[in-house]
Write a structure and sequence with these properties.
Number of domains of chain A: 2
Radius of gyration of chain B: 26 Å
Order of helices and strands of chain A: HHEEHHHEEEH
CATH superfamily of the largest domain in chain B: Sortase
Helix content of chain B: 10-25%
CATH architecture of the largest domain in chain B: Beta Barrel
Order of helices and strands of chain B: HHEEEEHEEEEEE
Number of domains of chain B: 2
CATH class of the largest domain in chain B: Mainly Beta
Helix content of chain A: 40-55%
Strand order of the largest sheet of chain A: 3-4-5
CATH topology of the largest domain in chain B: Sortase, Chain: A
Number of helices of chain B: 3
Shape of chain B: elongated
Low-confidence stretches of chain A: none
Largest sheet of chain B: 8 strands, mixed, barrel
Strand content of chain A: 5-15%
Largest interface: A-B, 59 and 72 residues
Strand order of the largest sheet of chain B: 3-4-5-6-9-10-8-7
Low-confidence stretches of chain B: 54-60
Number of strands of chain B: 10
Structural class of chain B: alpha+beta
Distance between the termini of chain B: 100 Å
Oligomer: heterodimer
Number of helices of chain A: 6
Chain lengths: 199, 239
């Protein structure tokens, strides 16, 4: 009886004090990666930076994972390698780089995010670089670019921050359905005119 | 000679009847349909969107809802730092892209919408969304929220300085006071500062409010932080 009481009491205490712990917060390893992302790259003689909102997206994602020291070391090494490659292109910004150089940059990016099981793809239609979390969720989405100021508030650098928030309609469907309706009306009118003439 | 004239007259009549008039008729009817009937056919447009979309959409689970309103008696673990009580970040479920994690209310404007992390299509179809390059309430940084002007953020047109914005999350409720409104170009980076080191709320929608189609301007509503427990964002030790 004593054992049972003790067991029940222990259960009650555990239940009362249980706090759900999530993999939240930025640890020292994640902080070191964020610091690397905040460093400047010498692009054709000018210090260039990753925009603030790109780094913010990384910080938000890091708040949902726990990065190990080894992962952080690997990512930082690959980021530095990527930075040196960018500097070696002699371009002013990513948009000025040759197609082959952009492809190589994409490969570097895939290696970086692959360290923590993420995948990366470039959407040619929207010109967005999209990074997916291991579960397929979007973790990062932006038009890849660099900015001149470290605060990232330079005018017009990424058209992806402010979204299209107008009337939420599917214009392709509107055009297709409207055209079909108009053709139906026109067909009906022709039929009526013909039958009237014949009569 | 008169035969030639008749043939010419017949040809011009043919061109008028079978070329110009149908084009005018098509354009006129299309315009009427577009302006007057588009809202009534919205259900069919949505359904047909399934066939016209150039990518596969996943409708099995539109989004994950992690929002559980905070009850009066609930206690969320806090830490005391520099005579400040902060929320323990390990005790809150940090939202992932696409999660509904709260609600946003502006009583004076009639705004009452689900709040998502991420401002993708699904989020904006079901509520309003925080840009993932900005931060969640309580993080002490900029919160940039987007919403459609014909649905959840239509009420922003009534926004005035002094009105209170409430954001409810699973880890606490936050209030902000509207300080100003402004119309700015969508490409202007000076409309927002995503590097700010203080908590501030920026909401926006397309402008003008009743315009159909794409617009270049956005209606921004700026608000300052008033209350709500801040999250401890210091580096987590021991990892």
């Amino acid at each position: 009886m004593k054992k049972l009481s003790a067991f029940l009491l222990a259960l009650v205490i555990v239940a009362a004090t249980a706090i759900t712990a999530f993999a939240a917060g930025i640890n020292a390893n994640e902080k070191s990666v964020l610091d690397t992302l905040g460093k400047s790259i010498n692009m054709n003689g000018n210090p260039m930076y990753i925009p603030a909102d790109f780094v913010n997206q990384a910080e938000n994602y890091f708040n949902t994972i726990d990065m190990t020291e080894q992962e952080a070391e690997d990512i930082n090494a690959k980021l530095l390698e990527m930075g040196k490659f960018l500097e070696s292109t002699g371009a002013n910004n990513i948009a000025d780089m040759k197609y082959e150089e952009k492809q190589q940059l994409l490969d570097y990016g895939k290696e970086v995010v692959g360290v923590i099981g993420m995948t990366m793809e470039y959407d040619k239609a929207t010109r967005n670089l999209i990074i997916y979390a291991p579960d397929g969720r979007i973790a990062f989405k932006a038009v890849p670019t660099l900015v001149a100021k470290s605060d990232g508030n330079t005018e017009i650098v990424d058209g992806n921050v402010i979204k299209t928030t107008g009337a939420n309609v599917n214009y392709t469907a509107i055009i297709a359905i409207s055209a079909a309706v108009v053709l139906l009306i026109a067909g009906g009118a022709v039929y009526l005119v013909k039958t009237k003439k014949e009569a | 000679m008169s035969d030639k004239k008749n043939r010419h007259r017949h040809k011009s009549h043919y061109g008028k009847s079978f070329l110009i008039l149908p084009i005018v008729f098509f354009m006129g009817t299309y315009l009427v349909l577009y302006l007057a009937l588009a809202p009534a056919f919205s259900i069919f447009f949505s359904a047909s969107g399934l066939f016209f979309a150039d990518f596969e959409k996943n409708y099995s689970t539109e989004y994950d809802n992690i929002f559980v309103p905070v009850s009066e008696n609930s206690t969320i673990p806090t830490v005391d730092k520099n005579s400040q009580t902060l929320l323990d970040i390990n005790a809150i479920e940090y939202p992932q892209y696409g999660n509904q994690f709260g609600e946003i209310l502006i009583e004076d404007c009639g705004v009452d919408a689900k709040l998502f992390f991420g401002d993708g299509d699904i989020a904006l179809r079901n509520g309003v969304g925080i840009y993932s390059g900005s931060f969640i309430p309580g993080y002490g940084r900029t919160i940039l929220v987007a919403g459609h002007n014909n649905t959840y953020f239509n009420g922003l047109k009534n926004a005035k300085p002094g009105q209170i914005v409430t954001i409810k999350t699973s880890y606490g409720n936050y209030t902000y006071e509207i300080t100003k409104t402004a119309v700015k170009n969508q490409a202007s980076r000076k409309a927002f500062d995503l590097n700010a080191d203080h908590e501030n709320l920026i909401m926006y929608t397309c402008y003008p409010f009743d315009e159909l189609g794409l617009t270049r301007e956005r209606y921004f509503v700026y608000a300052k932080y008033v209350s709500g427990t801040q999250i401890d964002t210091d580096i987590v030790e021991g990892d």
